């Protein structure tokens, strides 16, 4: 078998030489390029099994290359090397299918391990982000709000149904970043299929013309560039789970083919006459409004009903009350450990800011905000200002009263005193109706509850 071929895109000569030497010593062949133009030529000449790339390059950005690589060559796994402060880019790279990122200055032993993991990963299905895991590495859903407790119970109930040859298909719905991918993994890990593979197909990240080949596999010579036969992801899932992420992005033509596969529980590789049985459990997810897509003729109704035998609806983060703090502390610790720092402490004001924000990007946005804050501010305390949250429905009345030097009746004149007095007054006015009081104060229910606890009201 040929040694795996790696494309290295790095313009710092000394570093490129060190990586090149190390990878060759480990038995890989390497095409080392110092700019995007050469990297494109090299990838066309010999498509790599893995790309290792820097982001800031003399003739462009590494992400441009990653986009080009996915469109022109295919879903090649990529490792992105990032310098301090490039976290946004690293996250962008993850979305384009990068399998991991490495912090500079580079640890060559870590590089070697990650390269080996990436090359031996079962499938090119895109893993987008690290999931929260317990001590055994099993994925866990963090949070203790009533909404999350109900979700956990639902997951347990559904996981138990994942046995047998044709378990009910599950559709996971929820806004972007609510944890649909994580929920699918927890479902799999808690099911009788836990020891079998969990294979993810990211319908939005794969180029349209490659999805069919990725899902169903192909015979050698089935189409141009099919130089060898390749097993599809549905076959790779075996008796495990096939997670079809962002199912709303599946082209209409393929929706018909998937429907047939779901109905007959058999499939045919492209270019093959032989039918194969499908054993996998289908879990699909979407953040699109599929009902609306069906009305517009963009999603097949029959496929929707076939996929949506059981539904798992994930609540938005703004409806999870103080889970936001538990999650924030978890992400602080995780980021600090990853970058070998002491975890900073979230100040009281930072907690209030986190509770007040309405998190349109949900848990992903929270994770991103915390990671950036921990990386950029190497302090022992994480202040509200470090989070760089856009102020939203702040208690404008309170703030403006304070700014004008006013004292709310019953207040000691401090900002906290004014706030407490205003809350008490509003509660009294609304007959202790928390929802109505929150609405009048311009707060979410969670934010109001947090303050009620804080002031012991
Ligand atoms: N309850 C949770 N506990 C711990 N981590 C979570 C939780 N929910 C989400 N995350 C983390 O937040 C990030 C985003 O979650 P995930 O990718 O599962 O969202 P998603 O709903 O699939 O997003 P999209 O719709 O954009 O695909 C991941 O890093 C995930 O591990």
Automatic annotation (TrEMBL):
<dbReference type="Pfam" id="PF02954">
    <property type="entry name" value="HTH_8"/>
</dbReference>
<dbReference type="InterPro" id="IPR009057">
    <property type="entry name" value="Homeodomain-like_sf"/>
</dbReference>
<dbReference type="GO" id="GO:0043565">
    <property type="term" value="F:sequence-specific DNA binding"/>
</dbReference>
<dbReference type="InterPro" id="IPR025944">
    <property type="entry name" value="Sigma_54_int_dom_CS"/>
</dbReference>
<keyword id="KW-0804">Transcription</keyword>
<keyword id="KW-0067">ATP-binding</keyword>
<dbReference type="GO" id="GO:0006355">
    <property type="term" value="P:regulation of DNA-templated transcription"/>
</dbReference>
<keyword id="KW-0547">Nucleotide-binding</keyword>
<dbReference type="InterPro" id="IPR001789">
    <property type="entry name" value="Sig_transdc_resp-reg_receiver"/>
</dbReference>
<dbReference type="InterPro" id="IPR027417">
    <property type="entry name" value="P-loop_NTPase"/>
</dbReference>
<dbReference type="Pfam" id="PF25601">
    <property type="entry name" value="AAA_lid_14"/>
</dbReference>
<keyword id="KW-0238">DNA-binding</keyword>
<dbReference type="InterPro" id="IPR002197">
    <property type="entry name" value="HTH_Fis"/>
</dbReference>
<dbReference type="InterPro" id="IPR058031">
    <property type="entry name" value="AAA_lid_NorR"/>
</dbReference>
<feature type="domain" description="Response regulatory">
    <location>
        <begin position="5"/>
        <end position="119"/>
    </location>
</feature>
<dbReference type="Pfam" id="PF00158">
    <property type="entry name" value="Sigma54_activat"/>
</dbReference>
<feature type="domain" description="Sigma-54 factor interaction">
    <location>
        <begin position="141"/>
        <end position="375"/>
    </location>
</feature>
<keyword id="KW-0805">Transcription regulation</keyword>
<dbReference type="Pfam" id="PF00072">
    <property type="entry name" value="Response_reg"/>
</dbReference>
<feature type="modified residue" description="4-aspartylphosphate">
    <location>
        <position position="54"/>
    </location>
</feature>
<dbReference type="GO" id="GO:0005524">
    <property type="term" value="F:ATP binding"/>
</dbReference>
<protein>
    <submittedName>
        <fullName>Fis family transcriptional regulator</fullName>
    </submittedName>
</protein>
<feature type="region of interest" description="Disordered">
    <location>
        <begin position="393"/>
        <end position="415"/>
    </location>
</feature>
<dbReference type="InterPro" id="IPR002078">
    <property type="entry name" value="Sigma_54_int"/>
</dbReference>
<dbReference type="InterPro" id="IPR011006">
    <property type="entry name" value="CheY-like_superfamily"/>
</dbReference>
<dbReference type="GO" id="GO:0000160">
    <property type="term" value="P:phosphorelay signal transduction system"/>
</dbReference>
<keyword id="KW-0597">Phosphoprotein</keyword>
